[in-house]
Amino acid sequence: MSKFIAKPAATLTGNLKVPGDKSISHRCIMLGSLANGTTEVSGFLQGADALATLSAFKQMGVKIERSGDKVRIHGVGLHGLKKPDTALNLGNSGTSMRLMAGILAAQDFDSELTGDASLSKRPMDRIITPLTQMGALIESNNGKPPLKIKGAQKLKGIEYHLPIASAQIKSCVLLAALYAQGKTCIIEPQTTRDHTERMLNGLGYELDMAANKICLSGGGKLKSAQFQVPSDISSAAFFMVAGCIAKHADITLEGVNINPTRTGVIDILQLMGANLTLSNKQEIGGELLADIRVKSSVLHGITIPTELVPLAIDEFPAIFIAASCAQGETHLNGAKELRVKESDRIQVMADGLDILGIKNQVLADGIKIQGGKFGKPSGIIQSAHDHRISMSFAIASLRCDYPLEIEGVENVATSFPDFVKLANTIGMNIAQIN
Ligand code: S3P
Is 21 a catalytic site residue? Predict the structure, then answer.
């Protein structure tokens, strides 16, 4: 098992560019493959998750050329995918499995989707239910992977009230709706990331969007396009927290995606008193970008507004570290979804905070964290093989007086392959031992 040894550091300086957005990289491959013509992508995330999507589409006969972060996809059109020879193994990637299930439910061939030990424990009934309503035939292991998807089913449009605020379910249904007869409408309980909608628009597909209702009629076509993937705010978040909690910090994160459905972490940190400023705002390919400057901050605990939860859903492990360094208590509710991410992020973070002597109370749908001082670690922190837990505790080392050991860090490569290198460039002191 790989581990990080993260030693204390006090000063962070410099500019850094974190890798491309994971959600957008997945969607570039999926929609580029289903478009007519050649789609060119730059800034593609070379992380294991996005690469799993890429190789799955290659296995379905799509010609995809990649050189570093540049990808050229020779789209085959909505009906041009071929039956893969084997099951499609999507590794650790829930986004790949949930979104691709929407596409595969509508193909005229059978397919099977599998994943690693963590993905095999994650709930898939949330997508099986609406897809089945649309006419799909999917077998699962009690609502968990592997998924066996029967081909040649005729899908029909549905009106679906999402029971959970989830962009993955929304996107899965939207992708199936491209093939369905008639109109599909999705009603969201809370706003979630809208990259699928933006990209479909960019590829010339008409969507009807009002408040939290998104409608789309099947039977259209996707045209090809060029995409420049902005830096992932979920990866930038670790350095936003790092900049806030380090004793002396002045760092700038360049060209970060600030799509308003993703900026919950900025709002939450600012509510906690973060010294964080945005500049150089621009729009590229339907997505908003900005440079984010972060300086050492005096943070205070807050009650996190529940409407911000889906807009910061992947950033809570890092936010919990900020809360541990804040004055007073931070209270999170309405975040039950954190329990079914790559790990149970409430419990696994609480266990790590216990090792560092930070008082916390685990709640069914959140946590209370009492800010304090990290003590001498009482053991090795277990990441439960969750990339975001590993990186969050690595950042915590900025406020520790002792080296921190974090075990099970190999999955950092799923979303942020150069994390250690970039962190050390700005002044951190992390070593990875394989
Ligand atoms: C994602 C949506 C979120 C997020 C995941 C990526 C996406 O999942 O946690 O990392 O790309 O649509 P949910 O939709 O399950 O909240």
Answer: no
User: Could you give the CA distance from residue 357 to residue 184 in angstroms, rounded to a whole number?
Assistant: 50
Give, using CA atoms, the residue closest to atom 10 of ligand 1: 314
User: What's the alpha-carbon Rg for the chain, to the nearest Å?
Assistant: 21
166 CB near ligand 1 (under 6 Å):
yes
Q: Is residue 211 pLDDT above 90, yes or no?
A: no
Mean pLDDT, to the nearest integer, of 169-182?
Answer: 98
Instruction: Choose one of 24, 168, 388 to mutate for the ligand 1 pocket test, by most ligand atoms within 8 angstroms of C-beta.
Output: 168
CB burial of 292-314 (b: ≥16 within 10 Å; e: otherwise) equals bbbbbbebebbebeeebbbbbbb
- Domain extent listing, the chain: 3-20+230-433, 22-228
Nearest CA to ligand 1 atom 13: 166
Percent of the chain with pLDDT over 90: 99
User: Please, which pLDDT band fits residue 285 given cuts at 50, 70 and 90?
Assistant: confident
Sign of CA dihedral 115, 84, 128, 224: positive
As a whole number, mean pLDDT of residues 341-348 equals 98
- Nearest-CA residue for ligand 1 atom 4 is 314
Q: What is the pTM of this model?
A: 0.98
Q: Does domain 22-228 have CATH number 2.40.240.10?
A: no
Per DSSP, the three-state class of 375 is coil
CATH superfamily of 3-20+230-433: Enolpyruvate transferase domain (3.65.10.10)
Question: Is 314 a pocket residue for ligand 1 (Cβ < 6 Å)?
Answer: yes
- Residue 163 neighbours by CB under 8 Å, 6+ apart: 126, 189
Residue 114, pLDDT score: 98
Average pLDDT, the chain: 98
Report d(CA 137, CA 153) in Å as an integer. 7
Q: Answer yes or no: is pLDDT of 233 > 90.
A: yes
User: Using 50, 70 and 90 to split pLDDT, how confident is the model at 432?
Assistant: very high
Any atom of ligand 1 within 6 Å of the Cβ of 171:
yes
Atom of ligand 1 nearest to the CA of 26: 11
Catalytic residue among 116, 194, 232, 314: 314
What is the atom index within ligand 1 of the atom nearest the CA of 196?
12
Whether the CB of 23 sits within 6 Å of ligand 1: yes
316 CA to middle of ligand 1, Å?
13
